[in-house]
Amino acid sequence: MQPLLEFCFRISVDVTAGIQEVGTTAKGIRKIVPITGGSFEGPNIKGKVVAGGYDWQLLRSDEVVEIEARYMLQTDDGDLITITNAGLRHGPREVMQRLAKGEEVDVSEYYFRSIPVFETGNPEYAWLTRSVFIATGTRKPKQVLIDVWRIV
After folding, report:
1. Which among 1, 16, 10 has a CA at the least distance from the CA of 140?
2. Are 3 and 151 in contact (CB under 8 A)?
3. DSSP structural state of residue 28
4. CA–CA distance, 56 with 70 (Å, rounded to integer)
5. Domain layout of the chain by residue ranges
6. CA 21, CA 61: separation in Å to the nearest integer?
7. Superkingdom, according to UniProt (predicted)?
């Protein structure tokens, strides 16, 4: 059976605090991006991104960026949902340099995919913990847009 995708929601993550560069490590160049807020909305869920999470990025020697973001979503009815979102971003060197400078770059010019995993204590949102999700990402100068899809 071929899997189908069902759109669930878009997360608009604010990254207005700037990038903190740890430096070159044995694994590559480590950068940390503070998550300062945002929002999310879809057909069955809506709320805000709680400030305080982080996006840990590792620029590998093959110029692929490994991404692992950990943060919280708060629904409009007050429930908290944790998200761990791991993925990859890469593209031609000149495109990635433009992204790094904070320039607007069309999403068709680079690859940005991830696998979000959710955790919540509210049975109303347990559907987030009972399926596999994938996401597509778009890097904006002060935001990251993440479209979350459930594999059905």
Report:
1. 16
2. yes
3. S
4. 8
5. 5-151
6. 16
7. Bacteria
CATH top-level class for 5-151?
mainly beta
- Tell me how far apart the alpha carbons of residues 26 and 11 are, in angstroms, rounded to a whole number: 32
Residues 110, 99: contact at Cβ < 8 Å? yes
CA atoms within 13 A on the CB side of 33: 22
- Nearest Cα to 105, choosing from 84, 120, 90? 90
φ, ψ (nearest 5 deg) of residue 150: -90, 135
- pTM here is 0.93
Query: Phi/psi of residue 98, each to 5°?
Result: -65, -40
Match 């973001």 to its residue by tokens.
Answer: 69
Question: Mind listing the pLDDT tens digit of every residue in the chain (152 residues)?
Answer: 999 999 999 999 999 888 899 999 999 999 999 999 999 999 999 999 999 999 999 999 999 999 999 999 999 999 999 999 999 999 999 999 999 888 999 999 999 999 999 999 999 999 999 999 999 999 998 999 999 999 99
Q: Give the amino acid at 119.
A: E
Provide the 10 A C-beta neighbour count for residue 20.
Answer: 11
